[in-house]
Fold each of these.
Amino acid sequence: MFKIGDFSRLTRVSIKTLHHYDEIGLFKPMLVDKFTGYRYYTYEQLPHLNRILALRGLGFSLEQIKGMIGNDGKIAISSEVLRGMLALRQAQLQQLLDKTREQLHQVEIRLYQIEREGKMSDIEILTKEVGQMMVVSGREVVSDPSFMRERCMALNHLVWRAIQETGLKTDGISFALYHSDATNGIDVEMAYVVQSATLPELNGVAKAHILTPTRVAYAVYKGSYDDFGAVGRVHAEIMRWIQANGYRQAGACREYYLRPPQRSDDPMGVMEIQYPITSE
């Protein structure tokens, strides 16, 4: 028999770990001296310990392993159950691998950016999943860019009035969708997310429709909404990011006006700019 220190050196498993395995009933010593409390192990226990280490190496928790093997170290569950547990673990590891690959790719993008420009961009671009939304909106093609602010505010007013008249619930955050299919101006849509069991019927300019779930690349802009150059740089940075990461745009870009300016002398606003993307 081996004292715990000798067994620890033989198996390269720490004394602390062997103590813990004993305490939780996962791997107990062959003998415990009732006078000294010393733990003793044998060669015959090595396969049992190796099975624990093998399952631990696959990422199973000690509690899971305890349910998978018996006191003799042999598998105590059916092949079907074991296959299911391994398949689940495989899926978890694949998900982790995909996430790690994505993180590695993002690191590579930033390294390339530093090498090209000498610094990282001040604009952080992320991705997220956006679920299905019911919106009430008004849409118009604005022929002259100098009228954009005026027409967007007018559309926003009409949509908000329609929502109030029909008693629909909304979070009060307006956003604009910029469609790219207009050839004689800027195709803009002002919208609010609403809550309704059915698609409401509205009169006039405002219409209700569904925006399908999508993945978006997005960035947050803080500054004056009238600083079109600064806003445009955020749009351009997102578009460059989409191309560099092997995606393509998959729908109208969106500007969420999270914090509109509070007063006429308060130009500071916060918006989230989103671009629906796909890798297909």
Amino acid sequence: PALDAVAAALDEAAAAQRDADAALAGPRLSARVVLGLPGVAVLFAYGMGIDVLATLRTSAGLAAVSAGALLYAAGALWIRTLAAHARPVATVPGLGLELIALTLSAGLPVDRARQVVAEEADAAGLAVDSAQVGPLIELAARSGAPVARLLRAEAARLRRRVAADARERAARLGVLLLLPLGVCMLPAFLLVGVAPVLVGLLTSVTPL
């Protein structure tokens, strides 16, 4: 049962990771499209007879391209930060509680079970959180309920809560990622792709 619970927690973490990746797919593709649009705008301008690259020799063209590059870099960093916060934690919720319940079911006393789990987890390099064990043991002593059953129930509750939080973060991510696209990426396209064309068009009429 303990292995089944850990496997279920890992499946839930993998599902949350897939949700986060799916939410990221659209904004990442949009960012790549926006990044390629300035090249299309430059080719279109050359087809109209406008020397866009010559605008880089003007202060206005250089300022527009520099500002656009900074906005794009800021947008890419913003997207990466939002994605990092939406990823699920790389731990198994309630693992410490499951392991202590397992040792209790094997007949060890509570203090010895906690010691064994702490030693084995440290030797295996596992991060186990057993902070809830104390209150659950007190509850079992007052109510007469089996300690192991309470520990497993709390571990299951923790897994459900972590899975729900991960799905909520992935859902929010799809909306939050619209902010860097609208605030940084699209203005960057206007500055890098549209502004040089306009400057080149003005330069062809009157020198800046």
